[in-house]
Amino acid sequence: MTEANYAYEGLDRLLHERARLSILTALMTTGSGRSFADLKRLCELTDGNLGRHLEILREARLVTISRRGRGRTAESTVKLSAGGRRAFLGYLEELERVLRDARGGESADGEAAYA
Length: 115
Fold this sequence. Notes:
Blueprint: H1 13-16, H2 18-28, E1 34-35, H3 36-43, H4 47-59, E2 63-68, E3 75-80, H5 82-103
Antiparallel strand pairs: 1-3, 2-3
């Protein structure tokens, strides 16, 4: 046991932000990707907010975005990249470690061990 047991270095701020966490979770549930409209609805984000978060994820190479069509009828499909899937799974493992550590402070009946 080291002094920095609770540093949780694997909780990357890029992934830990609520909107991006929602987007990545929605993308993990399908291998074929999701449309911009689906992500907007599933994550309860505005067009501008979703667009900005997708750009951040794209720049980090966590997602790929492909467009079909032109103008107002164009449709964007967003998919997790292979690296994005690996990064998100690593993030989830770290988050599970946080939960295990936090639950370690509880008794069997869910009461705080220090109460």
